[in-house]
Write a structure and sequence with these properties.
Nucleotidyltransferase, domain 5; about 120 residues; 3 helices; alpha+beta; about 40% helix; single chain; globular; 4-stranded mixed beta sheet
Amino acid sequence: MSSRLLYREKIRKKRALRVRKRLKGTGKRPRVCVSKSLRNISVQVIDDDKGVTLAGFGTLSKGATVPKRSKEGARSVGQKVAEFLKEAGVEEVVFDRGRFRYHGLIAELADVIRGNGIKL
């Protein structure tokens, strides 16, 4: 890899750690971790106390209605996450945006989760 790519990767990891160092999910209040690629968006629900991923959803998951990275895809993934959290009896979560800014797809995803009665 070129030095520029290594530098960009180092900056991305540093930004993600800066956001995540303050966040911790528990059994009652799990962490909702969002990640994006150039074509897809995915979400994991994580219990950091036990070190367990409770669920994972994305635009590549089985049953995904919109198989691409778009606001519609973010809405469908957010709906799946909200349904899982309601079934699990979780009312409040910690939202982990990672290295991504809180706008566009990330904000849309959070709004859908919030709109289904889950506190972020």
